[in-house]
Amino acid sequence: MSGTYLGMPAFPKAARDAVRNGTLRGNLRHATHTIRDKRARAVAELEDWEELRAAGKAIKDRTLRHLDHHLVRLERAVTAAGGTVHWAADADEANRIVTALVKATGESEVVKVKSMATQEIGLNEALEAAGVRAYETDLAELIVQLGDDRPSHILVPAIHRNRGEIRDVFARRMGRWGRAAPEGLTDDPTDLAEAARLHLREKFLRAKVGVSGANFMVAETGTLVVVESEGNGRMCLTLPETLISVVGIEKVVPTWRDLEVFLQLLPRSSTAERMNPYTSMWTGTADGDGPRDFHLVLLDNGRTDTLADEVGRQALRCIRCSACLNVCPVYERAGGHAYGSVYPGPIGAILSPQLRGTGSEVDASLPYASSLCGACYEVCPVAIDIPEVLVHLRERVVQGGEVTRQGVRVTLRPARGHAAERAAMRAARWTLDHPGALRAGQRLASRTRRLHPERLPGPGRAWSDTRALPKVPAESFRDWWQRTRGGAR
Amino acid sequence: MSDGRDRVLARVRRALADVPRGERPRDVPVERDYLRTHGARTAGETVDLLAGNLADYRAVVHRTTEDGVGELLARLLSRRGAASVLVPPGLPPHWTAAVDATRVHDRAASTPWELDAVDSVVTGCAVAVAETGTIVLDGGPDQGRRRITLVPDHHVCVVRVPDQVVGSVPEALERLDPRRPLTWISGPSATSDIELDRVEGVHGPRTLEVVLLAAGEGGRAADGG
């Protein structure tokens, strides 16, 4: 994949380009509106949705507050069931571990189940550099990989492509990666799915190594859970001889019973189904059924830094359903690429700056990629208060302060770009603390009001281009009150 | 390897400095005041709900009894034009006694390519969930290895009703053994990846037929297929 997030422009610039793209806007609008209404219907079927949501939040909070305990327990259970557990503090370490495991099998290709964690660490690129070809097998990931594109949605990474564009990518590119698309391929989704089936089947049947993520890991039993629709997950999890799962440490849940909450919350929130077509659960290795070797790579990569922030840590409750993307008015217009991360949309706006820090231009701008309308919080199945975290992160960007980066406490300096705003606020504070100066200023403004321009000068001009400036009244409220006592005189 | 482990665990512990020392994991409250099942139903109504939800996700549902199951399965396979059918080792022999198609047994040495050449597979199941229209396989003797219900394009799954049917997801998890490899199946394989619209049929079996097998006699007339 040539697509990269390095050096991405800040959100406002990337979004400005995206909103000018009419096709992209149309594709996103169509897709997000389709799923929005369906989700609402699927959720309305369960009269105890709010109770399930509260339980989902509580289970995740219980997990996070004692994460070390649950991880150690998980490790013990997976090991007892025949698996091997590895720990990776960052992306490089995870990539090194996985690459070494693949190399040890002697294979030069792997089949992959869609996984946010492996995208986050850039595993495909790391494998490629080591001479290992990674084949994405989820339909949308395949579209992205064949099109040399970047994912733009958590659940449906090719949401920015319509059926016609997908047809063109398949017809042009499939042949380079393996079996070519059938002659005369149409843009009918059924035909496109069939083309993907034919293209990937030979890869599944010959694969010796599978790479996956996981939606949940059960500490009590050592069970991993992958939720999917197409069957590509089942192929990658059961046909290869070696299975390597790279999973963020926050994906652990304490008990088997806890799954009863998430298996109800997740499908209805993400694809708006009562249940997704396939869910695979496995505990270590099973005799004669599925991979002989199972490796679990537990990934930190900024998660413990996020955990150290008492307000921001709630982002780690996320179960990657993408309901917040689908309702977000900003995402709908700007699209996923503008967020400059594998985690777009409202959850990305709070997750990326915490996982990666606010050092880059795009990460520092992400907390502002929202109108704070709160729709994301409403639909979140684990009740992440995204607006609260956005405001918290804005504060940090502007004011600086203590944060944890790669496990170390550091003090961030206030953002320089906000110097003008801070100066204005300081001036305002002084003025409001000195009533005499405020009164004099207001009277001066009233007396000169005929001379005021229609437009603001300097940097304010853009604002007043599309808005009328409010008229300054002939008399200030304070003077009017002193004169009339609120109309009593 | 242990280096990464120590580093990650130390970071987790430092990050949780605000958690009181004496607090234990179970001290963090989780209210489980959500419902065990949604709505009250008789056993028969639960089976009807399962049938409705299976059909809603494009599984083809049939009903029969012990007396009719052999004939029904033979008919489903011949209608499909299946020349070969995979049979797990513990499938009751009378289920497939009348089947014309060549019976193929799954062997540990069977390659995925061999499985790909088989037309259909017939299995039992571990449990079925009415509210979600889901069947769950746990690799029991009448279900076989996970791969045999994955590679062939046509899966016929027999559910004993009402014994194997539960109302809800919480009830299903209670019945299942996490140490076994589990596959939850809700309809044929599908995707929402093109314009977020659901299309049936990608890598898993594109046709899923579910036979609801009632104990007793006289079910032949009730066959919905």
TrEMBL record, chain A:
Region (Disordered): 442-468
Pfam annotation, one family: Fer4_8
Keyword Electron transport: yes
GO molecular function per UniProt: 4 iron, 4 sulfur cluster binding; metal ion binding
InterPro entries in the record: 4Fe4S_Fe-S-bd, 4Fe4S_Fe_S_CS, FTHF_cligase-like_sf, Helical_ferredxn, LUD_dom, LutB/LldF, LutB_C, NagB/RpiA_transferase-like
Keywords: 4Fe-4S, Electron transport, Iron, Iron-sulfur, Metal-binding, Repeat, Transport
Keyword Hydrolase among record annotations: no
Residue span(s) of domain 4Fe-4S ferredoxin-type: 315-384
Stretches assigned to the Lactate utilization protein B C-terminal domain: 393-483
One Gene Ontology biological process: lactate metabolic process
Record domain LUD: where: 73-299
Domain of life: Bacteria
PANTHER family reported in the protein's UniProt record: LACTATE UTILIZATION PROTEIN B
Name of the featured protein: Iron-sulfur cluster-binding protein
Source organism of this protein record: Streptomyces roseolilacinus
Taxonomic lineage from the root: Bacteria, Bacillati, Actinomycetota, Actinomycetes, Kitasatosporales
Automatic annotation (TrEMBL), chain B:
InterPro entries in the cross-refs: FTHF_cligase-like_sf, LUD_dom, NagB/RpiA_transferase-like
Pfam name, any one: LUD_dom
Entry superkingdom: Bacteria
Chain ranges of the LUD domain: 115-213
Descriptive protein name: LUD domain-containing protein
Organism: Streptomyces roseolilacinus
